[in-house]
Amino acid sequence: MNELLSDSFDLRLAARLRALRQARGWSLDRLADLSGVSRATLSRLETGEVSGTASVLNRLCAAHGLT
Fold first, then answer.
1. Contact 44, 50 (CB under 8 A)
2. How far is 16 from 10, CA to CA, in rounded Å?
3. Is the full-model pTM beyond 0.70?
4. At 26, phi and psi to the nearest 5?
5. How far is CA 26 from CA 2, 7, 33, in A?
6. Could you give the 3-state DSSP secondary structure of residue 13?
7. Distance between CA atoms of 20 and 25, rounded to whole angstroms?
8. What is the 3-state secondary structure (H, E, C) of 17-42?
């Protein structure tokens, strides 16, 4: 995949993850507790610093009740 497209995807995913958490009124700590994903990783995902693995994204979907 083109690096520009990859960066764009990562930033859109980061914004979506942040929006989902904020819509529920959850702190990063709360989502970390619910998902089993560390607070540091969640923060880095939400800022687009890292891309989530399928396993991490699956845990976040489960915490949010999404498929």
1. yes
2. 10
3. yes
4. -90, 140
5. 34, 26, 10
6. helix
7. 9
8. HHHHHHHCCCCHHHHHHHHCCCHHHH
Residue 34 structure tokens: 């619910």
Name the percent of the chain lying above pLDDT 90: 79
**What CA–CA distance (Å, rounded) separates 3 from 34?**
32
- The two tokens of residue 23 are 């819509």
**Other residues' Cβ atoms within 10 Å of the Cβ of residue 61:** 13
| Residues whose CB is less than 8 angstroms from the CB of residue 39 and which lie 6 or more positions away in sequence, other chains included | 28, 29, 32
pLDDT tens string 1-26:
566 656 788 899 999 999 999 999 99
